[in-house]
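Weekly structure sync, notes
Attendees: PL (lead), two postdocs, one rotation student
Agenda item 3: pending single-chain targets
PL asked that the sequence for the first pending target be pasted directly into the notes so everyone works from the same version. It is reproduced below exactly as submitted, 107 residues in total.
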Amino acid sequence: MKHLALVLLVACGGAKAPPPVSNTADTASDVPATSPTGAGTSREVQRTAAGGVIELSGDRTAAMNHAAARMGTHCEPAGYVIVQEGEEVVTSSPVTTAWRVHYQCDH
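Predicted structure, written out during the meeting:
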């Protein structure tokens, strides 16, 4: 049993802790709220130190460009990885869906 406990302690001690979450507004102030044509935008649904979820609305290409700027600013300087993207149910009665992007910061 001693060997098992040592293995678990070694495995747990190697991970680097993520930076603390700041309780401030999005710092992507240089990112316009919409595309130049006003056709697409994004909004943060959830945000942690390790990543988040962004909802796209309007033109998907313009909204994704807006979301990419938000994700890049949030995950500076290491960048981010999109781990899931697609249509999700937002409300169940009546059923409402939205296109959402889940991402993780590369720490």
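Discussion points:
- The first helix runs from residue 2 to 13.
- The CA atoms of residues 24 and 51 lie 15 Å apart.
Action: rotation student to compare against the earlier draft before next sync.
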